[in-house]
Amino acid sequence: xxxxxxxxxxxxxxxxxxxxxxxxxxxxxxxxxxxxxSNALRHTRYALAWDDAAKALGMLRADGAAIAEAADEETGHxxxxxxxxxxxxxxxxxxxxxxxxxxxxxxx
Length: 108
Description:
Blueprint: H1 3-11, E1 17-19, E2 25-27, H2 33-38, H3 49-57, H4 61-71, H5 79-88, H6 95-104
Antiparallel strand pairs: 1-2
Helix pairs in contact: 1-5, 3-4, 4-5
């Protein structure tokens, strides 16, 4: 599975995502995005859950690590990937929606 395919599958998940006080993206069952899409694990605080999820999805280990780092807002994470994860989870407006909102608020 490619990163793009992962994000597409993430968009299909239930809209029960939130950002916890420590910045991590989780659903109501405290599951990380990679674990939900892979449906391989149900223990999201387990240190290597993302690695097992990436393996189950047939993803590159580097992509799995990047997803985990962005979802958990780790130091040095890929900010663009975090934004894309948030959008796929329904936590951020899509770029075209944000642009429309910005334009609508600019004038009368």
